[in-house]
Amino acid sequence: FGIVIDVTTLPMTSQRSVANVVNTRAMILSVASLASWIFHANALEDAAFAWQDEQHLQEISSSPRIYQIDDFLTPSECETLRQHGEPGLEPSLTIDRSSGNVVPDPVRTNMQMYVSVKDSLEHPLIRTLVRRLYKLARMPLGHGERIQIGRYRIGEKYDCHFDSELRQGVIRSATIIAYLSDVEGGDTLFPMGQNCQVLAQCCSDSTNSTAMKHLHPKLGRAILFFSHDMDSNLNPHA
Fold it and tell me: Which one, of 220, 164, 223, lies nearest residue 189 by Cα?
């Protein structure tokens, strides 16, 4: 502001005025160049991560579209995310299919927290992770929800459900699950048309359905699945 006042109040023939104009322009160009460099650096980082992630992408199913990536997160990143999420864990809620309200429900018994918008923008790891997740899901930035960090202890569960709840206007075209620890048991299950209303029956090792998809948690592994097909219809097996 001091420079602007000086430029507008002193005669244009003043050497000081000319110098201030030059300095002002230099500062503007410097800030613009820095912003451009930061944007370019982020784009290069995004491209590098996207290329790396694509190399490890493994198709699990074509309908619904399900993909798996091992080592999506490093052990150190997993530990950082666990420590970040643990203090804010609360009982999980679900969307009531009739009212649309977010309420406790016995179908979901784990704990979870939502990463804040501030941390999504400023946390060194999380802000990079957010961009990676959008790139992986092929979604433009800003077209998703905040990251959830969840914890499942022995016996806790989330019964079979759709991530998209069309009757309530909740349309989630893609979901990414990243596992932050190794576990014994506790798969992510896609019934693929099998009756899994009693979840324990489908989680048993004795289940003889070859169509059912059991995705086992592994430290750093990520699962990407699309709830909707390319024609935008909800896939009945998602």
Answer: 223
